[in-house]
Design brief:
This protein is mostly beta strands and about 240 residues long. It is built from four helices and 16 strands. The strands form three sheets. Strands 1, 2, 3, 4, 6, 9, 12, 15 and 16 form a nine-stranded mixed beta sheet that branches. Strands 8-13-10-11 form a four-stranded antiparallel beta sheet. It has a three-stranded antiparallel beta sheet with strand order 5-7-14. The structure holds calcium ion (3 copies). One calcium ion binds near residues 90 and 123.
Length: about 240
């Protein structure tokens, strides 16, 4: 069982929604490009020094070197939780697997498989009203960004999914719900990683991503923030 009996204290400071992310030009402010093959477009090594990736966090694990330019994946382990997350308040914990994780075409080329070997899951308390949800906040200059969330169900297998699952949670970026009752086992099965991308326009200098319980514990393997310019990613460089 991933749920822990550990109680968590509500933190008004970290749980407040100060982020305001406005809608983009289209009718929906946040667009999902879950499985678009374009996200896995091949890149050349010459774009390494101009990567538009602003942040990478290996959620639940240790620091990982970037495989094709851009910033390293920063640690977010039990011992060294990310400064961008709220692990100390949310009651979230980490876990790892040694099993290999297959990756869908939505995962950008050059993404280290190792990011899927570690994860952070947010313990739920008995009283949902008193629970602090897991969140990540990234300070950024105002502008347009792509928020990339890396998911793999490395805990629930068929047996556990039937016994304690399904795992379902929602994700908010700013005040916008971008994933509703996401069931990654249903979508991916066991030990298969994917990336979901959401484009947001930031007007108040911060990107705030929250993971909201529905059933079992929200779980995340990695997160990255990519700057978008003029509706396109700078240099067309993806990862
Ligand atoms: Ca929590
Ligand atoms: Ca496994
Ligand atoms: Ca990870």
């Amino acid at each position: 069982m991933q749920t822990s009996g550990e109680s968590t204290k509500h933190s008004a400071t970290t749980n407040s929604r100060t982020a305001k992310i406005s809608t983009t030009a289209t009718s929906t402010s946040v667009s999902s490009t879950t499985a678009a093959p374009t996200t896995a477009a091949p890149t050349t090594s010459t774009t390494q020094s101009r990567s538009p990736v602003i942040y990478r966090v290996n959620v639940g694990g240790s620091r990982l070197s970037a495989m094709n330019g851009g910033p390293d994946w920063l640690p977010d382990s039990e011992q060294h939780p990310s400064r961008f997350g709220n692990a100390l308040w949310s009651g979230s914990h980490t876990n790892t697997t040694d099993d290999s994780v297959a990756m869908t075409a939505a995962v950008p080329a050059g993404t280290p498989e190792a990011i899927f070997h570690s994860r952070r899951w947010d313990a739920d308390t008995k009283d949902h009203n008193d629970d602090t949800e897991m969140q990540y906040r990234f300070p950024v200059e105002n502008g347009q960004y792509e928020v990339r969330l890396y998911f793999a169900e490395t805990y629930l297998d068929d047996y556990l999914n039937r016994r304690v699952g399904p795992r379902k949670f929602s994700v908010e970026i700013g005040d916008e719900e971008v994933l509703h009752d996401y069931d990654m086992y249903k979508e991916l099965g066991h030990d298969r990683g994917t990336m979901k991308s959401f484009t947001v326009k930031v007007e108040e200098g911060v990107i705030n991503v929250r993971f909201k319980h529905k059933k079992e514990d929200p779980m995340l393997s990695g997160i990255s923030i990519v700057r978008v310019e003029s509706g396109k990613e700078k240099n067309g460089h993806q990862q």
